[in-house]
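Ops channel
N.P.: pipeline sanity check, posting one input/output pair.
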């Protein structure tokens, strides 16, 4: 005898409507969310997790659901489906919610919406297959005695048993199969913005940060074709790896992002990109990044591996540690510079390394400053996914300013080094870069204080005319000094 769902205790005479929870009523999957939340909150017990995993999928679901509460008030509900359910409930139709991802989550959603006559959900020790769900609904309402809202191919057995078939965002293959079954009403279609959502998810605009891999090539003046190809390959490898980690980071931060005034529009938080597809994409991006790293020097592969390990640790743990998160971000930026040096096989100056760590620490602190200022101005509570308080703003600004101007000091010492005098014909011209750096760093600090910049100072700089003029001036000075 197969596993059974817990049926509602009261059934009504009117033809009921049954709506699936994951991927239908909400544009997400609560179990996948719970797994990332389980580890992302820093409270997971790996031993218990592994024990549950070895006992099978049912035991794993039971462990995750029982130890990982989710806030369902900010879930990405599919508005056309929710409107249809509201209208059905208002007309007197008994509406039931069905889920295979735990009764606790289904009950929380039902209580939040207040629309359902009951729920069908698996017990803590059972995991229903789709045919079993179809059988349970048939036992409860009779074949053809209920209407069903589903999404994908796994819902075929339930649609076959339903009186009326309703589909949400069905693929072409699903629509063809539904046509064989007699057709279905389409409640919600794809928005047509899938490409834009994927570009936003991969944060391709953030790839500009990976241009840091070209810094060693420029400072060492190694402009041979082979070196430029190696640097370009390193750039692409870092970009693909970064996009994979952005996906992971968004999965870990789903709950916090949904409560943020701007981050709630991110594709995974908003449910505009399927979670399963996002996970597959992350794996493909990582494999592609590793494949690009193979023909480059082994040192570059080691740097890329360090970057992946550190950024994964950042996503799951370090981002929640006061100031450690800032140091981790600075090291992640600096690793791009180190990776560029490894790719083109040039020695990395200790002065350049010190300058990189200090200036990226300053920029990471400014990023935190802007995030906290947004919460302060919006009268939002202290962030739950960061170990900072809104009252820390003045201290963060002071530490950011200190790190920024220490970076300028290190750059000045670099100009005085023997290395610079060997590489540049006019090394004294490089002193002109110092006031430009002081201007730019001071300006972004002031703009952050005025709430006049985005939460990422580097991306802001790439769109800001004054910042671009400063960058162009620095490039011109470097070329003239060579």
């Amino acid at each position: 005898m197969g596993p059974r769902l817990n049926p509602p205790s009261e059934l009504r005479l009117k033809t009921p409507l049954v709506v699936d929870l994951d991927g239908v009523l909400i544009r997400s999957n609560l179990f996948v969310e719970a797994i990332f939340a389980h580890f992302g909150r820093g409270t997971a017990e790996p031993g218990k997790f592994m024990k549950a995993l070895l006992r099978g999928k049912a035991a794993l679901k039971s462990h995750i659901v029982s130890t990982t509460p989710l806030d369902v008030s900010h879930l990405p509900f599919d508005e056309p489906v929710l409107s249809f359910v509201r209208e059905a409930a208002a007309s007197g139709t008994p509406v039931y919610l069905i889920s295979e991802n735990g009764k606790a989550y289904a009950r929380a959603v039902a209580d939040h919406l207040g629309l359902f006559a009951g729920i069908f959900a698996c017990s803590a020790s059972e995991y229903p297959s789709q045919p079993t769900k179809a059988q349970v609904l048939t036992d409860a309402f009779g074949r053809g005695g209920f209407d069903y809202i589903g999404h994908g191919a796994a819902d075929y057995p339930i649609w076959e048993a339903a009186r009326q078939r309703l589909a949400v965002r069905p693929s072409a293959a699903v629509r063809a199969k539904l046509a064989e079954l007699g057709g279905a009403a389409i409640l919600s279609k794809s928005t047509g913005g899938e490409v834009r959502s994927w570009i936003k998810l991969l944060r391709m605009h953030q790839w500009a940060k990976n241009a840091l891999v070209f810094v060693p090539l420029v400072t060492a003046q190694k402009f041979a074709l082979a070196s430029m190809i190696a640097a370009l390959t390193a750039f692409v490898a870092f970009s693909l790896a970064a996009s994979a980690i952005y996906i992971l980071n968004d999965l870990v931060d789903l709950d916090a992002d949904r409560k943020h005034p701007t981050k709630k529009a991110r594709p995974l938080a908003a449910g505009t990109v399927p979670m399963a597809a996002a996970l597959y994409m992350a794996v493909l991006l990582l494999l592609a990044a590793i494949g690009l790293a193979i023909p480059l020097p082994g040192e570059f592969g080691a740097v890329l591996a360090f970057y992946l390990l550190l950024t994964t640790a950042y996503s799951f743990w370090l981002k929640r540690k006061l100031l450690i998160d800032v140091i981790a971000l600075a090291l992640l930026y600096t690793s791009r510079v180190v990776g560029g040096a490894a790719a083109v096989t040039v020695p990395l100056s200790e002065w350049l390394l010190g300058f990189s760590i200090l200036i990226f620490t300053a920029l990471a602190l400014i990023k935190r400053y802007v995030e906290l200022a947004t919460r302060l101005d919006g009268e939002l509570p202290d962030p739950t996914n960061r170990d900072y308080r809104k009252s820390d703003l003045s201290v963060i600004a002071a530490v950011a300013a200190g790190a920024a101007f220490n970076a300028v000091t290190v750059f000045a010492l670099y100009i005085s080094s023997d290395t610079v005098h060997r590489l540049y014909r006019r090394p004294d011209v490089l002193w002109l870069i110092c006031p430009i750096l002081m201007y730019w760093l001071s300006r972004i600090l002031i703009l952050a204080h005025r709430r006049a910049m985005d939460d990422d100072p580097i991306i802001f700089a790439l769109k800001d005319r004054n910042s671009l003029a400063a960058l162009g001036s620095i490039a011109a000075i470097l070329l003239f000094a060579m």
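N.P.: looks fine end to end. Confidence is low (pLDDT under 50) at residues 1-12, 123-128.
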